[in-house]
Amino acid sequence: MTVLHTAARWSLPLLRPVPGAVAAALWTAVDTGRPPWRPRKRRWDRLLLLVVALAGYVTWLTASGAGASSRLSSGLFLLTAAPLLAGFVLAVRRPLDGWRLSLLGLVLVGYALPPPPAPAPVLEGWQWTLWCPVLLAVAWACARRVALGVAVVSLALVVVLGATTPWPVDLRLTLPVAFLGVLAPLVVGASLGARWDARRALEAEQARTAEAQAARGALAERARIAREMHDVVAHHLSLIAVRCETAPYRLAPLDVRAGAELAEVAGTARTALTELQRLLGVLRAEDQDAERSPQPGTADLGALFAGVRAAGTDLRVEVADLDLPAGLGLSVFRIAQQALSNAAQHAPGAPVRVTVRQDGGAVRIEVVNGPGAVPGTPGAGNGLTGMRERAELHGGRLDAGPTADGGFRVLAELPLEVARR
Q: Quick check: 169 and 122 in contact, CB under 8 A?
């Protein structure tokens, strides 16, 4: 009793999920998910279905022609084997429904056909040929719970057929082989399904990581823009404060009320400058490598282009003489710099054309590169995000995309009116 009690205590937790798994295998309404083996292109999917149907038809013809009697070549064989053949073909797109049809075909063949003239195994070779791929497909495409139910029902069917078929069967010899024939494709299919699930989880995690990196890059670029704009705004606030403070000495004598007004303006500018520096301290708290050199502008484009040419890039430049505000000039420089960096990274050895000019009421920056001489290295997409952030900062827009010859084009338009307000 103690042994039986111990065995029951250890086996009951293992058997508890079996009824639910059997119910899921037998009565689940539809197959869930797309079978992993189906091609994405419709024509290849149809070709796969045609090949499987042809293979099942050849198997049926071979079985009907191999019978020593009229047992497998009669019209009754065609009717009883039809569900097994249909399940084999249906498993390509709906594996669980194909398995259910196969079960019906095995039962019909086992009990509706006359017995063979000689002792035979539980399932004959042609039946295994049509059933094993179905078991493999079910375990590959369905959830583990459903696969467990399929295994239990399939093994039970083999036992029932072996015990109740109208012809003599040596269960001690054929039943272990039949069990192996059922479990082997199920184990292989479950392994393939686990690998497929792991691959999908990895792809989803990589997509989430890429999104997080893109968002982090956008935030870092915004912080960098804020730091750069601080330098520009702080410069002008300092000039306002200094001019207001020195006005009584430069423009003396001044009216008392005018002097008080200028002093108040100077104090307000100094207060705004202090608050701006405090906000900048928050932005730079985690950035110990923040740039400390003066911020570049359109006057520094020549040095930028010279460095790109020195790196071996075939660069053609058309830059007009522009007198831009410091903030707008900084954004023009950064957009051109990032576009050239993207061209060097993604299209090494490609010729590059840069155009910077005033077009109507906007500054137009266009960077076009041809196809690379060698494959480039992929990026996280932060460069385009940063350029778009800079363009939108000035009320402009940025368009980027491939060209007809396999190259890439970046076009930014920054309005002058917004920058000069």
A: yes
